[in-house]
Amino acid sequence: MRKIIVAEFITLDGVIQAPGGEDEDTDGGFTHGSWTLPYWHDDIGAHFFETFSTADALLLGRKTWLIHGTALEPMKDDPFADALNGIKKYVVSTTLKSADAWRNSERIGANVIDEVRKLKAQPGKNILSDGSSVLIQSLIKHDLVDEFHLHLYPLVLGSGKTIFPPGKRLNLKLTHSKVLPTGVIYQRLVREP
After folding, report:
1. Residue-by-residue pLDDT tens, the chain, 193 positions
2. Cα–Cα distance for residue pair 155/168, rounded to 1 Å
3. How many domains is the chain built from?
4. Which terminus of the chain, N or C, has less C-beta within 10 A?
5. Which domain holds residue 55?
6. What is the pTM for the complete model shown?
């Protein structure tokens, strides 16, 4: 069975919203966009490519899919964009009419949990998810996330979207940890039953 791996940039208070750009996601009046930039280290990109190499599909919520697709679809001759443009993508949305805006995408519009269970049961490599706070909370509630690959940033923002649903206990086993020179801690955690 395929695994779902959640890869996130996350603050000490669990915020994942708008890590890369000031106006990336201002929902709820969020004004802390681009909070990851002062902490960049090349190992962060290397960790993403390592995780990405184990996957053959992305599972994203509508907003994350639109942000990624708008930025990456027009890019040419960029290894990062080429890799993400080429992989199969599943976008969860009840409002999108089609998934044509980003190549190799398919929309999941109903029975999301059942459809994700079917995806996990198919042969193939892992399924990667990032951003997508609403979707990932739902996946966690239904015990569908197998691993978390987190870059934990040494700051507290005090508000913003998170991926961990209130009231849901998760037992996790730390399988890898590395402190980067910028203070970011990279962790891989596996869900335990």
Report:
1. 999 999 999 999 999 999 999 999 999 999 999 999 999 999 999 999 999 999 999 999 999 999 999 999 999 899 889 999 999 999 999 999 999 999 999 999 999 999 999 999 999 999 999 999 999 999 999 999 999 999 999 999 999 999 999 999 999 999 999 999 999 999 999 999 8
2. 24
3. 1
4. C
5. 4-192
6. 0.95
